[in-house]
Amino acid sequence: MKKDISIVIPLLNEEESISELNDWIKKVMTEHKFSYEVLFIDDGSTDKSWTIIEELNEKDDSVRGIKFRRNYGKSAALNVGFNATQGEVVFTMDADLQDSPEELPEMYKMIVEQDFHIVSGWKKKRFDPLSKTIPTKLFNWATRKMTGIHLNDFNCGLKAYQSQVVKNIEVYGEMHRYIPAIAKWAGFTRITEKEVSHQERKYGVTKFGLERFINGFLDLLSINFIGKFGKRPMHFFGTLGTLMIMVGFSMVLYVLGEKLFYIAEGIGAPLVTDKPQFYIALTSMVIGVQLFLAGFLAELVSRNSPNRNNYKIEKELG
């Protein structure tokens, strides 16, 4: 049965907060008369998280749960949760009580009444240490520059989506930070943000370390490349290969021109292999050919992909 709202909550060892969060969500949903479902995605917890979810499911038919056999990561949890949703508007939020369910009704209105594809939360005032806030600011700045999406807080777990968005994208690896970018490449461009409150962590400790910023930057490069050149890799590798071959060819012309000049003037010309330009030319041409070969191989892989003509159609008239 179709719901107004689906709330996807990935979690790992959050036994202290699950019941409290569910009660908070239920209070807000009841006050605003929403039909809703809460999907707790247990990402391989080793505490009593799943037992609590089972108990909530038995006494509350709006609670659903999915348990992974082991820890796969937040992206995997979100992807599975998205596929299972039945709501018109899909929310994601963290299970640690740092995201407030009180924000959901206003974000729901922005999706339904203003027709945004995505509304991303912006925790303008944060209660995190400087070791976390400063790298986050740098991460958000780099992401804005590379994706062209002007959000202040890409990593905020509280987001709202039209159902069609989450049903037409795939989240994998550690790409959950870049769902707005993935959605943009899929054609969902109406993306905005809403300032939301940030609650201090009440229980437990964060599950993410500083390595997430390194992994996040690498994922950002990957998602940008796939979004721009996923179906035409030769355009990327071929352009770089052409530039390298042009550099090599220019160096060859320079070395030959200099050699001919010395001969014409009757001057003893140095050996070509003694010139640094010779090695620049040789290296550039080798790299250029390798880039072309990489492009050809990538094109072969792309052409044989079963999704090579999988284009997202929004509307069709008969």
Give an overview of the whole structure.
This protein is α/β, with parallel strands linked by helices and 318 residues long. It has two domains: 3-229, Spore Coat Polysaccharide Biosynthesis Protein SpsA, Chain A (Alpha-Beta Complex); 233-303. 48% of the residues lie in helices and 13% in strands. The protein is built from ten helices and seven strands. The chain has a seven-stranded mixed β-sheet with strand order 3-2-1-4-6-5-7, with helices on both faces. Helix 1 links the parallel strand 1 (3-11) and strand 2 (36-42). Helix 5 packs parallel to helix 8 (211-229) and helix 9 runs antiparallel to helix 10 (276-303). The longest helix is centred in the C-terminal third of the chain and has 32 residues, at 233-264. It is elongated, with a radius of gyration of 26 Å. 35% of the residues are buried. The model has no long low-confidence stretch (mean pLDDT 85).
